[in-house]
């Protein structure tokens, strides 16, 4: 009754990587670090089983995976610790999908709070990884993080930028946050000008594995029944209006001025959207990949079911999918750069926006379908 989720070969082919990965441009020699909270005890074995079932020509070998476990864990109930396990599986399996030759380093924070996630980011940035992907952030954080928190995060991001490390952050799954919270403000750290914010699209993949269309991800829902006392299965008249459910996060910052790389590229209507900010401001996301949770990526994870604990498969999406997908693409690109004697990409935004100015046709402009 539901879409199963795309598989690895479909993602690679839709984004034009199928042939190059088969020829060996697969991220080999590049390390991608993933930062999340906590540490799934079956993270590696689940990923290995997943690729055995769904992409057997690209196994995830034990030597390709390093687990930097948190020394202690805390706030388990508050953070919903086991709820982070699907995120971890999604991140690892997405990176390996796009860069099956790359080394993956998982760095687990001891809980879901910024004061412990930030040290995990610092560990990832200083570990020797070329790419760091982060599929988490603070909702409405651009206005609520505060100057001290932003300064602490930005210090780590600037360290990454100065040492050739690409840092990616999911832009969030609540659009501009207005529908859910009544405030039009983006998440943080996605608005930091020192990282690459990855937004979400809806990707259509046809039977031949090609990109048949890509649109901005925005999902609405309409319920047929809200009662707990009637037979909802027989309902035929909607109980309410079509309403917002989820979509790619983004917006204009209240905290950061427009970075130089966005000048002349980002429309002024977006950069000057916030009247409370003096002058043009930072706009995010910077680039997007598939995130629509209605299709998503099929992932594998050991879960607790009513009849026991065992491996199962289901789809996952959101910009938590988009960021690790892009991390894999960057790993492939870094491998190609090193093979030509060039440096890895490092901080992506000047490269992305600069190349958009020079080669705009190299980018898909995601516009409404009608």
Percentage of residues in helical conformation: 25-40%
Order of helices and strands: HHEHEHHEHEHHEHEEEEEHEEEEHH
- The separation of the N and C termini measures 28 Å
Shape: globular
Gyration radius (Cα, Å) is 20 Å
Q: What structural class should be given to the helix and strand makeup?
A: alpha/beta
Query: Quick one: biggest sheet?
Result: 8 strands, mixed
Note the topology.
Blueprint: H1 8-14, H2 18-22, E1 31-37, H3 43-54, E2 65-68, H4 76-79, H5 85-98, E3 103-109, H6 114-125, E4 131-134, H7 141-144, H8 147-162, E5 166-170, H9 178-181, E6 196-205, E7 211-216, E8 218-221, E9 243-247, E10 251-257, H10 268-271, E11 281-284, E12 287-290, E13 297-305, E14 308-316, H11 319-339, H12 348-358
Parallel strand pairs: 1-3, 1-4, 2-3, 4-5, 5-6, 6-12
Antiparallel strand pairs: 6-7, 8-9, 10-11, 13-14
Helix pairs in contact: 3-5, 5-11, 6-8
Task: Write up this protein.
By secondary structure, the chain is an alpha/beta fold. It contains twelve helices and 14 strands. The protein has helices at residues 8-14, 18-22, 43-54, 76-79, 85-98, 114-125, 141-144, 147-162, 178-181, 268-271, 319-339, 348-358, and strands spanning 31-37, 65-68, 103-109, 131-134, 166-170, 196-205, 211-216, 218-221, 243-247, 251-257, 281-284, 287-290, 297-305, 308-316. Helix 6 packs parallel to helix 8. The two termini are 28 Å apart. The mean pLDDT is 94.
Task: Using brief descriptors, characterize the structure shown.
370 residues; two-stranded antiparallel sheet; 14 strands; 31% helix
């Amino acid at each position: 009754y539901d879409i199963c989720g795309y598989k690895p070969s479909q993602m690679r082919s839709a984004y034009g990587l199928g042939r190059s990965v088969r020829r060996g441009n697969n991220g080999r020699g590049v390390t991608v670090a993933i930062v999340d909270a906590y540490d799934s005890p079956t993270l590696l074995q689940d990923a290995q089983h997943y690729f055995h079932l769904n992409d057997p020509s690209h196994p995830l070998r034990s030597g390709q995976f390093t687990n930097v476990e948190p020394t202690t864990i805390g706030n388990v109930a508050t953070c919903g610790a086991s709820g982070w396990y699907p995120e971890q599986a999604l991140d690892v399996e997405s990176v390996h999908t796009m860069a099956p030759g790359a080394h993956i380093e998982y760095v687990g924070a001891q809980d879901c709070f910024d004061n412990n996630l930030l040290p995990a980011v610092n560990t990832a940035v200083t570990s020797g990884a070329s790419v760091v992907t982060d599929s988490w952030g603070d909702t409405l954080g651009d206005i609520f993080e505060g100057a001290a928190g932003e300064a602490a995060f930005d210090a780590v991001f600037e360290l990454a930028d100065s040492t050739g490390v690409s840092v990616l952050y999911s832009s969030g799954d609540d659009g501009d946050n207005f529908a859910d919270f009544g405030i039009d403000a983006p998440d943080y750290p996605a608005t930091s000008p020192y990282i690459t914010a990855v937004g979400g699209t809806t990707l259509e993949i046809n039977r031949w594995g090609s990109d048949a269309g890509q649109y901005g991800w925005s999902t609405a829902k309409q319920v047929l029944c809200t009662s707990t006392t009637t037979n909802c299965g027989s309902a035929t008249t909607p109980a309410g209006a079509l309403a917002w459910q989820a979509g790619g996060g983004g917006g204009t910052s209240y905290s950061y001025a427009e970075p130089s790389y966005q000048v002349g590229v980002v429309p002024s209507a977006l950069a000057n959207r916030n009247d409370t900010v003096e002058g043009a401001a930072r706009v995010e996301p910077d680039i997007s990949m598939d995130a629509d949770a209605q299709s998503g990526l099929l992932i594998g994870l050991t879960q607790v079911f009513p009849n026991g604990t065992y491996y199962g498969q289901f789809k996952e999406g959101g910009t938590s999918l988009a960021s690790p997908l892009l991390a894999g693409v960057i790993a492939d690109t870094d491998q190609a750069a090193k093979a030509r004697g060039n440096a890895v990409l490092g901080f992506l935004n000047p490269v992305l926006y600069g190349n958009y100015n020079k080669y705009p046709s190299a980018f898909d402009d995601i516009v409404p379908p009608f």
